[in-house]
Design a protein that fits this description.
mainly beta; Methylamine Dehydrogenase, Chain H; 4-stranded antiparallel beta sheet
């Protein structure tokens, strides 16, 4: 396996506890047959510049790491689960039976789970082996998956027919909500383990206050009838959450996901793939605008400015603890 240099900067800003990672591809201006433009894993350096680290990859959709081990990352990719180890080596952990991964998650007890085009799988040995957990599901397209960060065995998934929950790591499933809608993303609050949020295709935003067991639709708002793609809880404010999508742009809630407000002033278009709050800078919010750039706000989305990665589609962002920096 080819060894690739992942991080080229040895130090972070002294105050920074996390480092921003962005997964995406530069598509604006690209034509079929041409060399791939910067794509794959982008990392924001200590000087504020962006670097395309490792090799160029056309489809990375999510990133996870086991609690306490941020030096090893697990990426959901078009060709399987990719592990990046402490030496910066990239290795695919799955075989040809799984492709076009949609999401990946790490939960309590070091368990990993991913969703792909025909189901869901879990690993209890840090990705060395995987087993299928899709039995009993009426629809198996695995768009979203989240393992409970505190309760081992609980997993919430998103399918073509809403969200399902299992309390025994896929042994049995029950419908949790959003029946009839394509699930897009589900997240658990870092402040309150009982609060979960989920977004859908054309079905709006759904909220759970019982640990992901049941989800209820929030009041109809600007998200109704639109495709929503991502969710971000603010680590500095338990009541602030952002979601984003195609048409509504960025929506922010200041009351724990009950009501929502569009915050797009300064964005070139209201078509946004991903959002992420900076855990080291209260109120700082990032948004990946379709084929425009990555934008940043210092006031929780009230105003925006370009931050880099022009012409890109950023499908997911994550702030990795500084202990994982090379």
């Amino acid at each position: 396996m080819r060894v690739l240099v992942w991080f080229t900067v040895a130090a972070l800003c002294a105050h920074a506890e996390h480092r921003l990672h962005a997964l995406g591809v530069t598509t604006k201006g690209w034509v079929v047959g041409a060399a791939l433009l910067p794509s794959g894993l982008f990392v924001k350096r200590a000087d504020g510049a962006w670097a395309n680290e490792g090799y160029r990859h056309p489809l990375l959709t999510a990133v996870a790491w086991i609690d306490g081990s941020p030096e090893t990352l697990f990426l959901a990719a078009g060709d399987g689960v990719i592990r990046i180890d402490a030496q910066g080596r990239w290795r695919v952990l799955t075989d040809e039976t799984v492709t076009e991964l949609q999401d990946i998650s790490a939960g309590a007890g070091g368990v990993l789970a991913f969703g792909h085009t025909t189901g869901f799988r879990v690993s209890e040995d840090r990705g060395a082996t995987w087993r299928e957990i899709s039995a009993g599901l009426p629809r198996r397209y695995g768009k979203a998956v989240r393992l409970d960060r505190l309760r081992k065995g609980r997993v919430v998934i998103g399918t073509e027919n809403g969200f399902y929950v299992s309390n025994n790591l896929g042994g049995t499933w029950q419908l949790a909500g959003a029946a009839g809608f394509q699930a897009m993303r589900v997240e658990q609050s870092p402040h309150d383990a009982s609060l979960w949020l989920a977004v859908t295709q054309k079905g709006g935003i759904f909220r759970s206050t019982d640990g992901g067991q049941t989800f209820e639709a929030t009041p109809r708002d600007a998200a109704a009838g639109r495709n929503l793609y991502d969710i971000a809880f603010d680590p500095a404010d338990a009541r602030r959450i952002a979601v984003c999508g195609w048409g509504p742009g960025v929506l922010v809630s200041e009351d724990g996901g009950i009501t929502w407000q569009a915050r797009n002033q300064g964005l070139p278009r209201p078509d946004v793939w991903s959002v992420a709050f900076d855990p080291d800078k209260p109120g700082r919010l990032y948004a990946g605008v379709h084929e425009e750039a990555l934008y940043v706000s210092e006031d929780a989305g009230k105003t925006w400015r370009a931050d880099g990665l022009p012409g890109s589609i950023i499908l997911k962002m994550a702030f990795v603890p500084a202990g994982g920096a090379r």
